[in-house]
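During the reporting period the student researcher (J.K.) took over the structure-prediction task from the postdoctoral fellow and processed the backlog of single-chain submissions. One of the processed entries is reproduced below for the supervisory committee.
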Amino acid sequence: MKFPLHPIILATLFSIAAINFTSCGTSNPTEKTTNTHTCKIVYRPLVTIRNNSDKLIILGLQGPETRLVSIPARSSRSINLISGSYKYDAKAQNAKTTSGYKYFSSNRKYQWTFPTH
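J.K. obtained the following structure tokens:
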């Protein structure tokens, strides 16, 4: 029997998709106890990318996940990423590509501005 997913249930599932549950274990691994667990909620890094140019910028990210983000001129986009190291390439029409590496840690917020000069 199939059950249709109610829109509120779907919205709830999508809203918690950026949360990972990790580090669940005994509170003290050297201590022998029963039913004593601690769970730590780990949030994905929130990255706000700001485009200060007069041109659309396309940002490619490759690391623990691969993303392609378009940032319109004079605006910004916010994304959640899996924590880790990323190679990036940012390109605007008739402009030199900006490339490099960036590391994003869990439970952190980042502001990233282009162009970088």
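The committee noted the following: Residues 44 and 106 are 5 Å apart (CA to CA).
J.K. will present the remaining backlog at the next meeting.
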